[in-house]
Amino acid sequence: MKQITLLVIFISLLLTACTDENSLVDNETAKITGLSRANTFLFDTVSVNGIALGNSVESTKVLINDSEASIDIISVNPTEVIFVPKQGITNGNISVEVNGVKTNSIPISVSLTPKYDTVRVSAGKFMMGALSGFSDETPIHEVTLSRDLYVFSYEVTKELWSQVMDTLIIPADEFRFPADSITWLRAIEFCNKMSDIYGLDKAYNLVGPNVTFDYNANGWRLPTEAEWEFFCKAGTDEDFSGNGDINQMGYFDSNSGLNSHKVGEKLINQYGLYDIHGNMWEWCWDKYEETFYTSNPMIDPTGPVTGGRHVMRGGSYQDGFNFARISNRSINKIDYKSIGLRLVKNAQ
Fold first, then answer.
1. Structural domains of the chain ordered from first start
2. Which residues are within 8 A (CB) of 24 and not within 5 positions of it... i.e. 6 or more apart?
3. Would you state the torsion angle of the CA atoms of residues 127, 132, 133, 137, taken in this order, to the nearest 10 degrees?
C-alpha cells in the first residue's frame, strides 16, 4: 500500500512538472528577431524569424502596418513564419499576431520589383561609327540625341526577369546573373510589363509579331542603336570605354570560362554602367541594315523602317573582345543563349 501511495505521489509530481513546463512555453513572449530580407518586393518569399511565433497558420497572422490584407502565409513554426507579400503592400512595420497577441514590430520595405539601379545620361552629340571596324560601322557621322535617359546600371538580372515575367522560381545563387536566352520579342514584352508595373506609358504596341515604337512614351524600352553607342562610348574616342583594359571591363571568351558571370563584377565605364562590354549581348530597338549609316538621320535616329533582324551590341562571354568594341554592330544568331538586355527610359 505504501508503495502504491509513493507511486501516485511521484506521478502527480511528474504531471505537475510537465504542466509547469508547458505553461512556461505557452507563456513565452512572442517576439520578432529579424527578417530574411528587410528590403523585399511583391511576391517574394520572406521569412520572419523570432521566438514563440506559433505552430499553425490558423493561430498566426503576419501584419504589415497592422493589416493582414494581401499576405499569404506559407508555413509557421515557433521560430519562423514564411509569407509572400502581394499587391497592395507598402513600406512600413511588420509584426506577427499569435493567438490574438501582437509581437513587436520592425521595419520592412516592399518594392514593386527586385531592386534595380539606373544612371542618368544627359543628351548630347557624338561621332557614331568607326574607321577601323567592319564595313557596316562606316561612315563615321555626327549624331545628336535630344533626350536625357535613365539607363539600367546593370544588365537585367535573372531575378528581375523571373519576377516581372512570372517565370519559374530560380535559385537564390542565380539572382545576380544576367537574364539570358532572350529573344527580341520577349525583350519587348518585358519592357511593356515593366512599364505596366510602374504605371508608365508603354513604349511598344504589339500586334502579333508586329511592334510599333512610341519614342515619346515615358515607359521602359530598349535603347536605340545610337543611344546604346552613345552611353557605351561615354565620351571616349577609343574602342573600349572605362579604363580601356578589356579584362577589367568585361567577360569575353578568353576570361569567362565560356560562362556568364554575375552582373557588376567588372569595372564601370565613365557613365557608371557595368558590363557594357561583354558578359551578355544587349538588344537594341533598331532593325539591322548594313549600309544604314550612309543615310542615318542626324537627330534621334531609330533605325531602318524595314528589315528582318535586329541589332545587338556589346559582345558576350562566348565571343572575342573584338565583338565588344563600342562601334561593333551585330545581329542575332540561331543560338540566343548569350543575349540579354539593358533598359532605358526617357527622363522627364
1. 29-111 (2.60.40.10), 118-346 (3.90.1580.10)
2. none
3. 30
Residue 211 phi/psi, 5-degree rounding, is -130, 130
Question: In the chain, how long is the greatest CA-to-CA distance?
Answer: 113
Residue 216's alpha-carbon distances to 25, 59, 139, 187, 345, in angstroms, are: 63, 52, 28, 19, 10
In what order do the strands lie in the sheet containing 281-287? 330-331, 310-313, 281-287, 339-340
Cell numbers describing residue 219: 515607359
pLDDT digits (tens, 9 = 90+) for 17-48: 444 333 333 457 999 999 998 888 887 889 99
pLDDT, mean of each 10-residue run, the chain (348 residues): 45 42 53 91 88 91 84 92 82 91 92 90 98 92 98 97 84 93 97 95 93 97 99 96 95 97 98 98 97 94 92 97 96 87 96
Q: Is the dihedral of CA 83, 89, 92, 96 positive or negative?
A: negative
Can you give the pLDDT at residue 333? Answer: 72
Buried b (16+ CB within 10 A) or exposed e, 178-188: bbbebebebbb
Strands 204-207 and 210-213: antiparallel
Closest CA to 161 of 139, 180, 145, 142: 180
Could you give the angle at which helices 184-197 and 158-165 cross, rounded to 10 degrees? 70
Give the C-alpha distances (Å, rounded to integers) separating 224 from 39, 61, 90, 271, 346: 33, 48, 34, 17, 12
* DSSP-derived 3-state class of residue 73: strand
What is the per-residue pLDDT for 26?
A: 45
Q: What is the DSSP letter of 157?
A: B
Give the three-class secondary structure for 195. Answer: helix
CA-based end-to-end distance of the chain: 94
